[in-house]
Amino acid sequence: MAKKKSKQSKQLKRLMRDMQSSMGANATLAANQNSGLFSGLSRLLPSRRTDQFLVGLLLGAAATYVLSDEELRGKIMKSGAKLYGGMVGGLEEMKEQMADIRAELTAEQNGSL
């Protein structure tokens, strides 16, 4: 039984270390990129002025349609609220799991001393 617990302990420690290193790598990657939030947008948009005007016209027409249709706007708002609720719930669940892992590691470290 002791070997199984020590194996689980090593797996938990490795998981925590991997998660911390991946979080650090993502932060470093984001910090090293000297581009703005919308830097990749220029590659998506057409380069000629006429094409840009047509894309803007289509986006404006779509936004006007969505904002003027009350039923569609309500559906979009409900979907957005559901998505937000799901994301918040997922983050809370992840926080609980991290707290559980930390508690297990702390208990294991205190028990081994």
What does this structure look like?
The protein has 113 residues and is mainly alpha-helical. The chain has a domain at 70-112. 87% of the residues lie in helices and 0% in strands. The protein has helices spanning 2-32, 41-44, 49-68, 70-112. Helix 1 crosses helix 4 (70-112). The longest helix is centred in the C-terminal third of the chain and has 43 residues, at 70-112. It is elongated.
How many E-type strands?
0
Span between termini:
18 Å
**Biggest sheet features:** none
User: Total number of helical segments?
Assistant: 4
Pick out the low-confidence regions. none
- Percent helix: over 70%
Rounded radius of gyration (Å): 24 Å
Structural class: mainly alpha
Averaged pLDDT: 78
SSE order: HHHH
In a few lines, what is going on in this structure?
This is YtxH domain-containing protein. This protein has 113 residues and is mainly alpha-helical.
Helix-strand layout with pairing:
Elements: H1 2-32, H2 41-44, H3 49-68, H4 70-112
Helix pairs in contact: 1-4
Main attributes?
single chain, 113 residues, mainly alpha, YtxH domain-containing protein
